[in-house]
Design a protein that fits this description.
- The protein has helices at 37-45, 93-97, 103-108, 110-118, 134-147, 164-181, 192-198, 216-219, 229-232, 330-336; strands spanning 3-11, 14-22, 26-30, 52-57, 60-65, 78-81, 152-156, 185-189, 201-206, 209-214, 236-246, 251-255, 260-264, 273-278, 284-286, 297-309, 312-319, 322-328, 343-348, 354-355.
- It contains ten helices and 20 strands.
- With 357 residues, it is an alpha+beta fold.
- Helix 5 runs parallel beside helix 6 (164-181).
- It is globular.
- A hairpin with a 4-residue loop joins strand 12 and strand 13.
- The mean pLDDT is 88.
- It has a six-stranded mixed β-sheet, with helices on both faces. Strands 13-12-11-14-20 form a five-stranded antiparallel β-sheet. Strands 15-19-16-17-18 form a five-stranded antiparallel β-sheet.
- The chain folds into two domains: 3-232, 3-Layer(aba) Sandwich (Rossmann fold); 236-355, RNA polymerase II/Efflux pump adaptor protein, barrel-sandwich hybrid domain (OB fold (Dihydrolipoamide Acetyltransferase, E2P)).
């Protein structure tokens, strides 16, 4: 999969001016509201026709303006899934899936039934949208898009209208689509966790400009520098190697480079590297290892940096070869008398370690 895009689009009060290329196979488009993420997606889909743009998918040019190629949306071999599943209320799930020309035959093929199996749609085939949950509707929308056999799936914040539990379910399904069906994707999100879990490459937009591109774990390591700290939540976004599993204890032990982190049990094989997210305010600091603590991680560390940011203090500590951010109150920082190179202990609950794939 590959995508190349150069787009200059002037709208009333806003200009999208970006240029990037990526081999994917899953590319995330990340940034704050109003940064141009959906506009970029719509330009790729052909729903917006810029006066000045060049867009190619898998080396196939779908747009070169002015004066060149313009492929209409229905001929771009792309499928878009929006925040609203846009299902026909009078049709069953099967009817929605097979509405497009050729979709009926696609559904009855081996690859079609694999899509049904991966998205767990078989029990829903005869039900109407009125009897489906939000997550189930989004699964049907994904199935409909995939049955069109697209060269690339375009996703516009597919979990934004769902509650946290359903959002996790849809994200897990997208990971299955990536692993089992191997469909390339370009997806818009404002959630750092989704980006880390799903994307191989990402482009970050701010005010219509591309401000960063690269693997999510690298791009989001310095969220303040690219103006997305409020979206990332100054999380700790880590790539860690699996050391071993403690099935009886329900944890997986990860390598911090001279220190170890207990995370929720995963089926990743020892030696494999996985992504982990930890919110800064879930990293507690103390001056010595506490006794009788339910948290599995009490990590000896040293303070690297202390930053006062309004009514909070951001403390960077190093444990092993890994740096972590902790967000605490000014009162706590004063009581602990934190300063550079001071020894401390970082306390993190296992449940605070969010596995991102």
């Amino acid at each position: 999969m590959s995508i190349e895009a150069r787009i200059h689009l002037a709208l009333r009060g806003f200009t999208l001016d970006v240029k990037f290329e990526s081999a994917g196979p899953v590319v995330g488009v990340f940034g704050p509201s109003g940064s141009g993420k959906t506009t970029l997606l719509h330009c790729v889909a052909g729903l917006i026709k810029p006066k000045d743009a060049a867009i190619a998918v898998n080396t196939r040019t779908v747009c070169r303006l002015p004066g060149g190629t313009w492929t209409p949306p229905e001929r771009r071999k792309l499928a878009i899934v929006t925040q609203d599943p846009l299902l026909f209320p009078h049709l069953s799930t099967r009817g929605n899936l097979t509405y497009a020309p050729g979709a009926g035959d696609a559904l009855e093929s081996d690859s079609g039934w694999k899509i049904i199996d991966v998205l767990r749609l078989k029990p829903l085939l005869e039900r109407n949208p009125a009897n489906l949950s939000g997550g189930e509707k989004q699964r049907v929308a994904l199935g409909r898009a995939l049955l069109s056999k697209p060269e690339m799936l375009l996703l516009d914040e597919p979990t934004s209208s769902l509650d946290a539990e359903l959002a996790r379910e849809v994200l897990a399904l997208l990971l299955e689509v990536k692993r089992e069906l191997k469909v390339p994707m370009l997806f818009v999100t404002h959630k750092a966790g989704e980006l880390m879990a799903l994307a191989d490459d990402c482009v970050v937009l701010d005010a219509g400009k591309l401000v960063a591109q690269g693997p999510p774990v690298n791009v989001l390591a310095k969220p303040r520098a690219i103006g997305v700290a409020n979206l990332v939540g100054v999380d700790n976004l880590l790539r860690l190697k699996v050391l071993r599993h403690d099935e009886a204890g329900g944890v997986t032990i990860l390598d911090l480079g001279g220190s170890e982190l207990a995370a929720p049990l995963t089926d990743a094989e020892p030696g494999k590297t996985i992504s982990v997210g930890i919110y800064a305010d879930e990293v507690m600091l103390c001056l010595e290892k506490p006794a009788g603590l339910s948290a599995r991680n009490a990590l000896p560390c040293r303070v690297v940096q202390v930053d006062e940011l309004g009514h909070e203090v951001l403390v960077k500590v190093r444990t092993g070869s890994t740096e972590l951010l902790s967000r605490i109150t000014p009162a706590a920082a004063a009581e602990l008398e934190l300063h550079e190179d001071k020894p401390a202990v970082a306390v993190i609950k296992t449940s605070a370690c969010h596995l991102l794939g």
